[in-house]
Amino acid sequence: MQEKFKKALSLRIIPVVAIYDDNDAHNLSDALIAGGLPCAEITFRTDAAAEAIKKIATRDDMIVGAGTVLKIDQVKQAIDCGACFVVSPGFNPKVVRYCIEHSIPIAPGISTPTDIEMALEFELNIVKFFPAEAFGGLKTLKAISAPYQMMKFIPTGGIGPQNVIEYLKHPKVVACGGSWMVKSDLISNGQFEEITRLSRQAVDLTRKANFVTMGRKSK
Description:
This protein has a single domain, classed as Alpha-Beta Barrel (TIM Barrel). Helix content is 47%, strand content 15%. It contains 10 helices and 9 strands. Strand 6 (109-110), helix 6 and strand 7 (126-129) form a beta-alpha-beta unit. Helix 2 crosses helix 10 (192-218) and helix 3 runs parallel beside helix 4.
C-alpha cells in the first residue's frame, strides 16, 4: 500500500471524487486513465463510495484510496474494499493510530501548527492541508509550514486550474487534491470525455509546475 500511495503522490494531482452510482466506477476509471491521471480518492460522502472503491480496486491500471474517512469502521470498510490509502478532513487520533498500527497510509487533515505537531507525534511526514483556500490558501500554508521543514502537504479544497501551479511550485507541497476534473455532475451525466479532457489539462499543469520547480533547483 505504501508504494501505491507514493505512486499516487507522484502524479502531483489526486482526483477527489464524490460518486453517486457505483456503476459509473469503470467509466470514470477509463476516463482518468485516458487523461493521464490513473488515481482516484473516492470520498465517503455518498452511499456508493464503498462499492465504487471495490470496483476500481479490481483494476491493475488504477490506484484507489478512500477520502472523508471519519472513523475506524470506515477505515476497515475502505481497506476491505481494496483502498490503498486513507485521507481524512481532520485529525482524529483514533483513526490515525489505527492506520499506523495496521501499516495503512493516511493523510489526515490539518489547518494549524497544533495539528501539524499532533501529526509529528505520530511520526507522520505527509498531511492534508484542508480546506486550503478557505483557510487562507498558499499564504497560510507557507506561514504555518515554515517551522516544520520535515513535513510535506497535500493542499485540498478550492484547488483548480487557476491556482494549482502556484501550490505545486511550493517545495513543501507533494501533491494537490482536486475535484474540478471529476465533478459529480460530470460523472452522473456521463460526460466522461470531458473528464478525460480536464484530466489532460491537469496533467499539463503539473508539468508546467514541475518545469518551474526543476528550473529553480538547477540555478
